[in-house]
């Protein structure tokens, strides 16, 4: 995200979180305000807003996906598959790093202080690398690492109204690596507001990518029309683009149908001097743009345990998957890939999936090829711990969609590696046949689950 776009995840039942994650530069930050980017694969938690779920700890792992497969060809029924799921969680946990990274402020925060608010720490290991960068300029922020290499802090004051990313790596005594990544923004002056937008300027995205703007100050109901009128989104396709307010801080804009492949979209923010609330005025005046790549829509059928990948109208691959178990169903509906992480950490505790000791049912610091589908923690990701026989035959995850993979994700021939390498942020993944409800439209970038009339009803114009 960059100064101007936003997101407002929706909440969902506690079941749907994923442990932490590590993001790549291609990742699009779509986290709700919350802890650092910890994630968990979640079935549904509270059915409501995925925002809470999305906010994960600033630990390396992304968010909402938990192990998706089981160690043996389990059935999709009751206790049997619950036992299988527990075995798989335990198996993955044995391979996890003891190093746990925590980053503050929370991922998605837009009101961080310019001094004293940022800290990276690790328990059970030492920090090996911390990089903090301004999203807009790419400038690296100087920092200081403690003598024992367990904490890191910026050595300078941060700029106001600026978005930053932090990427951290750590190792435990056994040399096992943990990673964490987060994106946040500092607060603008009291009398001004700033919008952070997705997707990035100059990026190439999938056909389902909306323009999402997250404001660092609440826009009053009386001023929403003025603010919306000052934001213009145009496509070379000539499609009508309309805004929909999901909350006082989030405005998404999209056409009635997906963007055509090969089209160009521009976003113009003419917010300077525009009042967003009594005595609070916008400061941005800029135009950015992004390109739409080829069309790719992948349909996951949880009954057949298969995913069909369609590119530009042609089926290019059918992939065996393992979706959410009976206890943690995968959401129905159209979900947009909002970020991609080569490796991410997933912790069940972030979505309320805990054991009697309060710890997460699973905590996997190196989930490979993770792509976020919801703010609350739904991912489509690689699974190396599950028995290969479950893919294409059984649903054994905590709500995520798992693809066969290897530890470390270094084998380019696996289904997970192929799908990751052939996917763009903004591509659409459609899940059908789960018994679960349709995902909430504000849980991630999933406004396509509203009808056009429902979308228009959310406009202030």
Structure, explained:
This protein has helices at residues 50-54, 78-94, 224-229, 415-421, 452-457; strands at 14-18, 40-45, 100-104, 119-123, 126-134, 143-145, 151-154, 163-171, 177-185, 192-193, 195-198, 204-205, 211-215, 231-235, 242-247, 250-254, 264-270, 275-277, 280-282, 285-292, 296-301, 306-311, 314-320, 333-336, 339-347, 363-372, 379-383, 401-404, 428-432. It has 461 residues and is mainly β. It has a five-stranded mixed beta sheet, with no helix packed on it. The protein has a four-stranded antiparallel beta sheet with strand order 3-4-7-6, with no helix packed on it. Mean pLDDT is 82; it is low at 1-39 and 43-80.
- The residue-averaged pLDDT reads 82
Global shape: globular
- The tally of beta strands, per DSSP, is 29
Structural class determined from secondary elements: mainly beta
Unreliable residue runs: 1-39, 43-80
Strand content: 25-35%
Count up the helices.
Answer: 5
How far apart, in Å, are the first and last alpha carbons? 25 Å
Largest sheet: 5 strands, mixed
| Strand order in the largest sheet | 23-22-21-29-24
C-alpha Rg (nearest Å) = 21 Å
Can you give the helix content as a percent range?
under 10%
In short:
It is built from five helices and 29 strands. The protein is mainly β and 461 residues long.
